[in-house]
Design brief:
Largest sheet: 3 strands, parallel
Order of helices and strands: EHEHEHEHE
Strand order of the largest sheet: 3-4-5
Mean pLDDT: 80
Number of strands: 5
Number of domains: 1
Low-confidence stretches: none
CATH superfamily: NAD(P)-binding Rossmann-like Domain
Shape: globular
Length: about 110
């Protein structure tokens, strides 16, 4: 599991939370806003198994979705559930060759609750 943040204060809080929950394998990545740097940060933990995005509208210009998808291992899934209103760059060839599933759904179905 990854927790993504751009704020330094939030990064510290997430690190403290990680110390309390050692039984969960996860990493904390402070986003730099650069696809290559963020991808390298993801890759230090190994390939990403799944990605759930619940980003808010202020993340419209962020590159984190592209970085996250580029860190995927083959045959994995991304779920886009945030409120980003701008089109995002998807690594198309990488998604195609590695058989990624990218699913978008706003919120959840009544049966999921």
């Amino acid at each position: 599991m990854f927790a993504l943040t751009t704020r330094h204060s939030e990064h510290k809080r997430l690190l403290q939370m990680r110390e309390r929950e050692r039984y969960i394998q996860h990493g904390i990545v402070q986003l730099k806003g650069n696809v290559e740097e963020d991808l390298a940060s993801f890759q230090q933990f190994g390939p990403v198994d799944a990605y759930i995005d619940i980003s808010l509208r202020p993340a419209n210009t962020s590159t984190h979705i592209r970085s996250s998808l580029m860190a995927f291992k083959p045959f994995e899934m991304a779920s886009l559930m945030g409120t980003i209103s701008k089109d995002m760059a998807v690594p198309y060839v990488m998604a195609e060759l590695n058989n990624f599933t990218i699913r978008g759904q706003y919120m959840y179905e009544r049966e999921d609750a």
